[in-house]
Design brief:
Elements: H1 3-20, H2 27-39, H3 46-58, H4 60-70, H5 81-96, H6 104-118, H7 123-137
Helix pairs in contact: 1-2, 1-3, 1-5, 2-3, 3-5, 4-5, 5-6, 5-7, 6-7
GO molecular function: RNA binding
Domain NusB/RsmB/TIM44: 7-136
InterPro entries: NusB-like_sf, NusB_fam, NusB_RsmB_TIM44
Length: 145
């Protein structure tokens, strides 16, 4: 598994656990560190994981608003924890991470793969639909990449 994909998987697991614990203040670092030690000991790109988890946490209000706008038939609390956090990571990477090395299509495809791996049978399609809508509303930047 590529390091970035593994890092996104660990970020998802960390955000999932943090979300299940009612987003307890100051627990995200502890959860993320534990998951890195558990699932990827010796991983050199731990900063990428912390950037994802804290990027999502720091922009949660804006990210959640985008999910609600792009999936109006699905109130946030009715979206499964896995799908909700996959979307949060995808939206963060797509719109807010300012990562020139991650083209929009990579962020979307990685999110779809996470949803297929960790979510239910329709998670990939759901995530694809929501992130596709957001990407189109952005004007499809870097489409050629």
């Amino acid at each position: 598994m590529a390091n970035r994909h593994l890092s996104r998987s660990i970020a998802l697991q960390s955000l999932f656990e943090w979300d299940m614990r009612s987003q307890e203040k100051d627990m995200l670092n502890t959860i993320t560190k534990h998951n890195i030690d558990e699932f990827a000991p010796g991983l050199e790109d731990g900063d990428f994981i912390f950037n994802l988890t804290h990027g999502v946490k720091d922009n949660m209000k804006e990210i959640n608003a985008l999910i609600e706008k792009s999936a109006p038939d699905w109130p946030l609390d009715q979206i499964t924890n896995v799908d909700r956090n996959v979307l949060r990571i995808g939206i963060y990477e797509l719109l807010l991470a300012n990562a020139p090395d991650v083209p929009p299509k990579v962020a979307i495809n990685e999110s779809i793969e996470l949803a297929k791996t960790f979510g239910g049978p329709s998670s990939g399609k759901f995530v694809n639909g929501v992130l596709g809508t957001i990407y189109k509303n952005m004007g499809e930047p870097r489409k050629e990449e």
